[in-house]
Amino acid sequence: MLNKARKFHITTFGCQMNEHDSEIMSGMLVENGYEKAQSRDEADIVIFNTCSIRENADKRFFGTLGQLKKKKIEKKDEFTVCVCGCMMQQQHIIDTLKEKYPWVDVVFGTHNIHNLPKLLTNLYEQHKKQMEIWPDGGEIVEGLPAQRLFKHKSFVNIMYGCNNFCSYCIVPYTRGRERSRKPEDIVKEVRALAEDGVKEVTLLGQNVNSYRGSGIDGTIDFTDLIYMLAEIEKIERIRFMTSHPKDLSDKLIDAFRNCDKLCKYIHLPVQAGSNRILKAMNRKYTKEAYLELVKKLRNAVPDIAISTDIIVGFPGETEEDFQDTLDLVRKVGYDSAFTFLYSVRTGTPAAKSDNQIPEDVKHERFNRLVEIVNESSAYKNRCYRGKTKQVLVDGVSRSKEGVYEGRTDEFKLVNFKGTPDITGRIVPVKITDSNTFSLLGEIE
């Protein structure tokens, strides 16, 4: 079968970094003559971009992968199965694939997605399975094409890897050490995106606050980079994620006040509200220091929206520790929070702890936390009623016919009636109602 006749489909598990990696893989394949399929069922090539952050993601991946065995055995060389991403950087996962899924054709990791077209070519020419896992990232490859989900907004990777080694997290082992892109390469990419109609960019990194780029004028830090990108005329909004509290500088907080294009929203993962647990997590800040950061952010921009990540049931967590977390959640008053049950990750220090929390205790605490978080989210959203907000329209709602959806500066999801011509535009929407997770409005 010729390349141009082959159709591919990518299933993505996990974070925005993975989503953007999938956009790049899609762009490379289209550039190399492959066609994009609308579903796995009609694809000749199926690619799974995996996530290793939690055990549930592992189970979902293996469960979905197993569903393809019958089709692979029936169609043989006419059907190609590829797996990549963070899970592939772990030896025990590779061992499982070899033992239980020997029919998988191509396996590669997080550091060499740019080699996907070559791996497929080798597979078809050599009729031999391809496995290529790089232990580290090496040089950053620039200029890779990407097929974006939206015409008007785009992810932009500014750095790769992580140096923080939180005791529960597998990312430094799967994504490698921190590597920052050159600022001129980032500016070049964003200029090209702007010329292609992009109005909003989201800067991505495991910890964007530790970005360090070498430029003509010396070292460029993350805030410097934001101001550089804000000078690009057609870019109207700049977002970023994720931030580590220990590296959130006064300089960046000032940028929220002074840079009009920087959206008034920050995702600031706290993970826990107990100083004892934060120390065990190797987070390198205290509850008090985190609350001080929130105070500074709200002094700079009173209506800034703040979201977070919280882990429930970390090894050794007592009821008192959990109460400290609930206390912090109440004091901050989050706009939203991603809440997770602690998941044992093989190879991390926390996985070796003998003081694991029983599942029933974790779930009971989780339910209490979610109730408080949802109350906070609902209250924050009610405060938008009667206000007119500028909304970047993403398109038709996936759940309601004739309804469009978009995001405010504060990353609030808004649903409203509209027409196809407003997609990709920033329009004024008066907020008429709200619920826990979104706003309702009317175009003015």
What can you tell me about this protein's structure?
By secondary structure, this protein is α/β, with parallel strands linked by helices. The protein folds into three domains: 3-132, Rossmann fold; 153-382, pyruvate-formate lyase- activating enzyme (Alpha-Beta Horseshoe), CATH 3.80.30.20; 388-443, OB fold (Dihydrolipoamide Acetyltransferase, E2P) (Beta Barrel). 34% of the residues lie in helices and 23% in strands. It has 13 helices and 21 strands. It has helices spanning 16-31, 55-66, 69-75, 91-100, 116-126, 171-175, 183-195, 222-230, 250-258, 275-280, 287-300, 319-332, 359-382; strands at residues 7-12, 35-36, 45-50, 80-85, 106-108, 130-132, 153-157, 159-160, 179-180, 200-204, 212-215, 218-221, 237-241, 265-267, 305-312, 336-341, 388-396, 403-407, 413-417, 426-434, 439-443. The strands form six sheets. A six-stranded parallel β-sheet has the order 2-1-3-4-5-6, sandwiched between helices. A five-stranded mixed barrel has the order 17-18-19-21-20. Strands 7-10-13 form a three-stranded parallel β-sheet, sandwiched between helices. Helix 12 packs parallel to helix 13 (359-382).
